[in-house]
């Protein structure tokens, strides 16, 4: 590296002899009660078990900056990683300051939080940590952390911690303060904990003066196990390319909004965009994919036998963030609950619910986003239905994930190539193996991973699009004719063993329940099950309602008749019809 790398271990009391800034490109303060309690418990247990031991709390990655304030020069460190722990330590000192009766300890905490102004000695007031992530956060710190007795405003802090409209950093800091207060429920705990925290708990930091070197450290330490997301590093690298302070703050806020929307799914969203740009199966982790295949792509030159540089697919800085933001807006438009405004019906919403809830992989999201980027609402529902049929059929007939990803990339390429949706619909990119699909769906499907999806798809077909399709989070598959009926039950009288073996696990004998099924009642005879179980205890799906309205009994003839109907209806959703011979094969001879 071009610059000297500084590294050292510091006890907490020495950590707060330095000055830190949390840059605008950093993530918000996201620690919740569990993480705060874990830190407090770990430190307290270490103190209790061996008060003379040292306890390692974690690492910090810093960029070192020379600052000047009046005639005073000082060093300030931009915090690239370690914000959550350092901020929590900051909050601990504020709480101890406001709860302790020791004036010496109060002064220690005050000096840790900020430097008081001394005009006689030309010393300015300065906070130990400057929060540049948001103006509102700086105001919160001034009011509740820097100000004496600020953390004692429990009613205000409780309100802030519960306000979902409030800034996430403010909400979590408020909650952390209340959590720390509850932990320090008497002075004896503080008397043990606080000296140990100050003098026995240590952190390791590495710092570089050059921003690029500091970001490289950030990346290296991520690869060595510090929990950073790929999106965190992409954020840092792209914001570092925006040199104007005001513009960088503006773009940091854009990133924060996107990050807040997707939460832990942000990396997955960025993977969809990678697929749209690169149109090939990922070969590396997300960060390396962006670096080598998007920012600095190459291709092999057969003449020179060397890799040569290609035109970048994106430029770091504003162009990257603008690109991500445009697809973020598309995603919200498509997937938020008011998307029926796009098509003046619930069909788009319902189809997306089915696919998000039922399909086992999200390979289809990238083609959908690319389609909407190019064609907007023109043919949108038809495209989505074709996409669903293609990806669900490929999954059911057993195509590998690699092949299904390849098919997604083929669809994206075709969207890029063709000038209108109609030509896309007429292409062969949505073709699938109808013969294999028919054969699989016609047979025993219970226990197959796609069974729940097929039943959901059938459910949506009976539900229709006059209202929203909102299946419950917990769904189980129920056999009407049970798998293991009691020897004395009516089921054994009505069905031979060979009948049960042939029909029990087929589509026509399966329905969905809105909660975990009650195995104690699943073996009831049909009339008892229909009356006691389904009517009274379970919120029925549309297909279940249909069955129990039509069929007063559940004989072999009833089961086969229902199987024919549900099979034909399901196959029609894939554009497949049963032949007369196939229908005849389902008849009771």
A few lines on this structure:
With 589 residues, the protein is α/β, with parallel strands linked by helices. It is 56% helix and 11% strand.
Polypeptide structure, described:
The model is unreliable at 223-227 (pLDDT under 50). A 6-stranded mixed beta sheet has the order 1-8-3-4-2-7, with helices on both faces. A two-stranded antiparallel sheet has the order 5-6. A two-stranded antiparallel ribbon has the order 9-10. It starts with a strand and ends with a helix. The protein has 589 residues and is an alpha/beta fold. The chain contains 28 helices and 12 strands. It has helices at residues 12-15, 33-49, 83-99, 103-113, 135-146, 154-162, 168-183, 187-200, 211-223, 230-239, 245-262, 266-278, 286-295, 318-335, 340-343, 347-358, 365-375, 380-396, 401-417, 421-426, 434-442, 451-463, 490-494, 497-503, 526-537, 542-550, 556-572, 580-585; strands at residues 5-11, 19-22, 55-69, 72-81, 114-115, 126-127, 129-131, 201-208, 298-301, 306-309, 476-479, 510-513.
